[in-house]
From TrEMBL:
Assigned EC number: 3.4.19.12
UniProt-listed Pfam families: Josephin
Protein name: ubiquitinyl hydrolase 1
Coiled coil: none
Keywords from the named record: Hydrolase, Protease, Ubl conjugation pathway
One record GO biological process: protein deubiquitination
Native source species: Durio zibethinus (Durian)
Amino acid sequence: MASEQNQIYHERQRLQFCLLHSLNNLFQQKDAFTGASLNSVAEKLVLDDPSKEIWTPFSLVFKPHHNSVTGNYDINVLIAALEGKGKTLIWHDSRNGASAIDLNDGMLMGIVINVPVRRYGGLWKGRHWMALRKIDGVWYNLDSDLQEPQCFKDCGEVREFLEYIISHDGQVLLVKNDDRQLYRRKKANYGWYPFKQS
């Protein structure tokens, strides 16, 4: 098991860059995203916002969608970053429970989770991003707070973990491959689309 885990890419937590680490762990690639690329995404979101940012002396550090020094990116950055890679983010309605998630869905790339955390003896409260991904048929917890990736024994254990997250004010977000990419791959491989073109 240790040799398998050595082959799995896993970034460890630094400052408040947990969203950056989660994305790189999800894509299993160093620098799939960088601090600079996520800052650029966050700044573009501000430019595209009709109610533009009002500048204050704090604006150099505390931006609308991130902290320019420590990271701390918000959900808008996550959505835009994933869309830039041809992925779709779907919020899982916690009222349905974890049992409603199809962990064997071929379109499911992975799962991003946002959970409340307390640090520094409870003096600081915030939220933390982490990623789960199925690699070679096995689901892994790729949380950057962990020393190393943790594997789940089966889908039942993944659902138990997700149920715990949901019951403790966590948010579960499903990362899906874009349908159009799947259809393009099918056409390239088999020369057809699964539906009529208009």
